[in-house]
Amino acid sequence: MNKAAMKLLILFLPLGMISTAQAVDLENGEEINELCAGCHGEYGEGDKNGDYPRLSGQPESFISKQMHLFRDRKRPNLPMLEYVDERQFPDQEIADVSAYLAQVELPTKLPPFDEENFDPLKRLLEAKRVVNIPRMPGDIEAGRKRYKRECRSCHGSEGWGDHEKGVPMLAGQYSVYLQRQVKKYLDKHRIHDPESPDDELLAAFTAQELDEIWAYLSTVDD
Ligand code: HEC
Ligand code: HEC
Fold first, then answer.
1. Could you tell me the distance, in angstroms and rounded to a whole number, from the CA of residue 189 to the centre of ligand 2?
2. Fold type of domain 140-217
3. Is the beta carbon of 84 within 6 A of some atom in ligand 1?
4. PANTHER family of this UniProt entry (predicted)?
């Protein structure tokens, strides 16, 4: 890579990554993302039913860690297996696509309607990028308090995750997907807190208490 390209690359990396930056190739990451787009959407926006999670804007190290877990068969994910098989997915490719997806920003709302310069195609493309999590039923205020007490220290003050520590966003992720992941943690198919793998935090809540947390998180991006 020439010097100018390297400079550009550094400009596009989130601040926290610069110190650990190996040479990632965002263009290659964008190309690889075409493989992912069939399920996760062209912009990594996921699908609204929560079958496929949103990936864009997640911490780079979170995305790459999950990719390694899938590839090494440590986190079950049948639909993705063939895509992450080692022969097709060397470490460098994981690094590239993770860095690419981490820097894709998605708006939470459509820009205001501009009657004079209305361009239907442009509007359609804009709408595809918008992710706004549908409201979940439940006591939002109770959920907010519980979130702040039990989750914010790691997932961030309003649930947007922690890029430095690689903790994923919960706001901006589909509620149904999050609910399924809690079950995977409880069934020990995933490890929630690698620093204390036997942690029972999520098991301590009733279904209703968790629902209140999702209800709160679904309002953060409104
Ligand atoms: C055939 C469909 C499919 C394709 C193609 C696919 N994925 Fe996935 N991916 C899934 C499904 C389904 C899940 C959720 C699995 C679960 O429920 O635990 C997932 C989960 C993930 C997660 C975990 C996200 C989280 O918040 O837990 C990451 C990261 C991911 N995929 C990255 C990728 C990347 C990068 C590509 C392209 C190289 C890709 N996926 C291609 C189906 C797909
Ligand atoms: C000690 C830090 C910590 C606390 C506190 C914490 N989390 Fe997490 N959480 C993590 C980490 C780290 C991950 C990613 C782990 C992995 O690789 O699967 C995660 C992942 C998740 C995921 C999966 C997200 C995804 O996209 O796959 C859910 C759901 C979740 N946490 C819910 C919660 C809830 C709800 C609370 C509060 C009741 C909470 N967490 C508190 C550290 C924490």
1. 14
2. Cytochrome Bc1 Complex; Chain D, domain 2 (1.10.760)
3. no
4. CBB3-TYPE CYTOCHROME C OXIDASE SUBUNIT FIXP, CYTOCHROME C4
